[in-house]
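Case study 2.
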Amino acid sequence: MSNIINDPVLVSAIQDLARGIKSEADLSSLTRELLKITVEASLNAEMEAHLGYPKHSPTGHNSGNSRNGYGSKSLKVDHGVLEIETPRDRNGTFEPQFVRKNQTRLTHFDDKILTLPEGTIIGENLEEDKKRFYVSEEGAWW
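Prediction:
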């Protein structure tokens, strides 16, 4: 992953948070909170793009569609279940892309990518390849 956190103030804040970590449970809790903040911010940015104006902007008055509060959603993530707030619009036309409607899982697919041994051929027996490469701890993905 590239270095996306290059703001010194943000790096300093994260370092301050990390100083309080004393156990794996603390790390898991911090990770979940950061994930929640990130997912909710992404969904709110999608809503802003959908409506065409920022929250509390006078541009939205009498625009025909506006924000209509939040709904709650439970997502299964790598560290358990994450409760998030998803924005709604009055017309019901908002279709989030980052976390889609009815989506129940948010997992890091990158963590599932396998490095194949040199010379491995995929495709000779597709069903066997699926079983080898697409099985998670919860079971098969198909």
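The chain has one domain: 8-107.
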